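Task: fold both queries, return tokens.
Query 1:
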Amino acid sequence: MKMDKWLESVYSDGSRYFVSTPQPRLGQTVSVRVRMYEDAPVRHVLVRTCPNGAENFSLARRICTAHGLAYYEASFEISEPRMHYQFYLVCDHVIYYYTQKGITTYVPDHTYDFVLLTEYRQLSWVKSAVFYQIFPERFCNGDPSNDVRDGEYEVDGHAAIHMNWEDEPLPYEKGFCMDFYGGDLKGVQEKIPYLKELGVTAVYLNPIFEAPSVHKYDCIDYLHVDKHFGGDEALAKLSEALHKNGMRLILDISINHTGMEHKWFNRDGAFFDKSVGAYNNPDRLERSYYFFEPHSNRYKGWANLPSLPTLNYTSKELRQAIYEDEDSVLKKWLKPPYNIDGWRFDVADVFARNNEMQLSHEIWPQIRKSIKEENPDAYILAEDWGDCGEYLQGKEWDSPMNYYGCGRVLRQFIGLPDLFNERSEILRKVDYKMTAEDVKERITQHLAKIPFVLAQNQFNLIDSHDVSRIHNYADIPYDRMRSAVILQFMLIGAPSIYYGDEAGIGGWTGDNEGCRFPMPWGKDFHRTKTFQLYQTLAHLKQKTPALIEGGMKFLLWQGRCLAIARFDDKEAYVAVVSMEAEDVVIPLALRSIGAKMPEDGKDLFQAKLKVAIKKDGMVEMTMPAGKAYLIRCPLI
């Protein structure tokens, strides 16, 4: 569909710049705005709502012009907890319909409507956050006295192995996730000054509760921090220290399954007497916590792994133990002296989904209610690698680990296989180069399905403990990695740095052990361009209103060149990225966001820009092959 040129300037969102009350109450009258070029050939602007199922139109008035853009405003009453609206742009011979997904010449359905929520409390601290994900065992050894000793214990026939900090992790076939370096919570606390220097405002720790493995997703006791990390007291001290430094703390947990040696299950008696736990005691209450076959010890393991027995949420007692009771697992760590600021839920995509027992949409709202009762500002971060818009409507999660709308997209754009496709022998053989339009459509598709107040809380990542680090791929040069990082920090939401990415940490690709190397504290990485890239972007993110509260708009998607703008009513930031093999000349419609090129002709990193300004105000830029610019643009 060929669109009129002026449509490139049409924009609205759910921020305070376009909604009088982004988080309204029932019965309140709110005003919403849309903007476009001041000479746009629009006869009328209508706002369509559907209160209580009945279609209604409010006429928008042209209220002002600023920076070459005209603003139209209409008001309506919030009559429902979830209020949808669309804009109708009425011209002489066509009506354009505008939703979060974009503009059509046909009446769209409600899937991508703008939405205002009355019952969702947005976490204001997340919008300005820069997260730092730490795999605790490999970050810093603050107390060698609590290190795991060689042969200290054995699980499923595999003994613990003590490693030197400079050693490479063992492949799974040799180490079985039992190769320990001694990282602990005291080590994290000691590095708080480093995190502040980098620009971090929130720490996300992979699991820290009692567990035999390195990764600790095979928990044996939810109610205690592993002694090799310093125990409960170390967590209390770390939390206090982080909060004193103005930083938040998120803990990781799997409540979908436990380890087979968890005290509730206790298959082999490796850590508890066999009189404890469900496996060896069919009459115990904990038997109902798991999926046992009748009159048998055969049980269901997550992903068919016998080492990770799946929890059964038909059990009322299990629900009480995990999240309902005042001394439940999730509530304990939200209370003093730990005072954590949220939970990251492992394998949340499969949680409470067991064939005929599909309980996820019943239980997640209950978990949310329980957490928010204890701490209304606690972040609910869920692992889901795919489309999960159904969970992001204000009553379940605050955000997924945003692989779908960030990590998978950006990694593929710079030349890596899609993270799901590479698992398939058939799919990974297809050598497709993702286009800029693909990127724009994928990201828009994710964000357009969710209310703006949730879009602002998205957890944007490119690397993690589950995927190979992009800088460890031999065929991904520095400039491509840099492009992905710049785009990550430009997306609406909060960026997450995986520990050591800023340090060029070592590793290999292809399995999890390769992305879990010890932090290279012995390496002088503070003056490297990689560290300075992350540091510059992190401090920019946490202090810049346009990147915290502002809107986001794709300005260009041409071939393999992409431009994204973030903006408020004071300034704009534009990231331009090229994956082309040759230099190209591209148009940049800065005028569509009311902005212009900086007078010094340089980007934020002092790179000289080669541009030409056309009579209509359009900017033409010569974009070098494989490069990225981040430009601070004043408004017209």
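Query 1 returned. Query 2:
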Amino acid sequence: MPVQNRWSEPDAREAIERYGSQGVAEALALRTYSARLLGADADLVLHGGGNTSVKTTVTDLLGAAIPVLCVKGSGWDLATIEPPGHPAVRLQPLQALRALERLSDEQMVAAQRQNLIDPAAPNPSVEALLHAFLPHTFVDHTHSTALLALADQAEAAQVCREVYGERVVLVPYVMPGFALAKACADAYEAALARGQEPEGMVLLKHGLFSFGATAQESYGRMIELVRQAERRLEQGERSLHAIAMPERPTPAAALLPQLRGALSRAAEAAGAPRRWILTLRDTPLTRALVDDQRLADWASRGVATPDHVIRTKARPLVLTADASPAAIEAALESYMEEYRSYFQRQNARVGGHKTMLDPLPRLIAVPGLGLIGVGKSAAEAAVTADIGEAWASTLLAAESIGRFEPVGEDDTFDMEYWSLEQAKLGKAAEKPLARQVVLVTGGAGAIGAATARAFAAQGAELALLDLDGEAARAAAAACGPRALALACDVTDGQQVRDAIARVCAHFGGLDVVVSNAGAAWTGAIASLAEADLRAAFELNFFAHQSVAQAAVALWRLQDGASPGHGGGSAARPMAPLGGQLLFNVSKQALNPGPNFGAYGLSKAALLALVRQYALEEGENGIRVNAINADRIRSGLLDTTMIRERAAARGVSEEVYMAGNLLGQEVLASDVADAFVALAQLQRSTGAILTVDGGNVAAMVR
């Protein structure tokens, strides 16, 4: 869809009033408003890309007006930016730097920080000097997909001049920083000397600038310049908006776990973290790219704009549509060897002082399937996939009018290993269960929902299964925007297998299963209807078996073994990625109560199942443990049952719920914490962890 001018005068006035009530000046309020308009359009700005600025004044403590540049700060995204996201920097000291012949990155960053009005503000954009050296009040910068399709042509300058005439200044590719800022300022002033009045600036192989006296003027020029690029592309061989989805896609649920396992083994060999999250994009756009016979050539060309290299590396890994596990392993090894060679020759070029990043791919192209983003989290994998789609869009558009030819290897390496660019990714410590995909059955219940939240708090990615799909979606929402919710009857083996396949398609694989779903049928065992006993076993035993079987089959795929065979450590040169089965067994398995025979018998069988899986799957790296919980407020022990049991014992409900050795009520969150603790015990399997506040009769030993 073509970009639209979304400026709204009522919305702009509302922004002035809203931010003004917070003490924000009108210029910065409008700067924030128009920056968010740009950031809301993925065809203009993606995930922290682009930058915006306004030149204004602030008043110091003595009442003097100080000219400042309010420019986007590091760590802010234009889509959600607020006024603090444009930290104010003293303008005149920045402009004075233009007189220098050279300025190192370290000196540039130091100068910008020294001139911040608020010393605690984030680092200004690496392109702050470019904004400062231009004379305009408002300056906008995007990586427009349509513009890049022109700017990444072999004859980019000629193509852009044909499209824009004298409306823009053309600047050959220069690495961002001081040198680029000077080159842009020089080119702009040269255009003025020729009698031009440029409305924008095309940085070849990089992106687009627009500027103006007002926020509306600069924003409007950006939209119109992009629309000109789009109109040129509409004359190409095909319209990207008319691409239809091809048929016969490769089954993602089968391929992604194999790919994830292969990445794990490759990562271990490279000294990188073993677990990665995958995000598949099987859109008409990505299929048009990956199903084209020119894919291998296209994949070798490079990124749409150098900024993307820190997310996707210089090129994607390309697999064949029918890639076998052995072919996947071979393709990965070849990719990593080529990356090592690329690093060695480029590092030698720059003096040999760089330290190699891990050689794993971040973007994978699979004919018949689509593009796959790889990341340490679902959010990061999604960002990579988004950028992969932008690359696909840029490349296909560029090829429709000529030849996609972005920056070369030298410039790509310089950007990939530029410390200021790497700083955008952040180096925060990962949470204990980051990179792990956790599935919780009965995920909408009290224990299931609490368990899902507890795992999410430790960094895990969550999939919640529940008979009530709406309730599962509500519980998943509390775990974060990437959590997956699925309606599933766990007593139906096919539904279980389908659900786990969808988890694989969503995250690329699975690491931990919390088999939690259960229910109690009551009545004396001597008079219990056979149907009730069978129903209890269907949910409290056979459903757990179906979930465990499907999970183990998946872990076989991840570890490169046949789904029907254990493989064993002798079949693998490395320890298997494996997985974890965690079961909610209940104290009834150890300490049966009257009139709960159906529940206790089925749970006792489940406890035996736990031990059997622990016995048989240990050699495959699969740990199997259980929680023995009692007297938890939930669907099993609801308000009515609590009231009746307390009355039968002649005590208050509070005393009944705290009827244990510790004298404290045990909460669903306590059970959740116990599941998380078991998940982190790397050398425990076959264990039963009691969470009941202390009950001698239910003690395991």
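Both queries returned. Flag for query 2: The radius of gyration is 30 Å.
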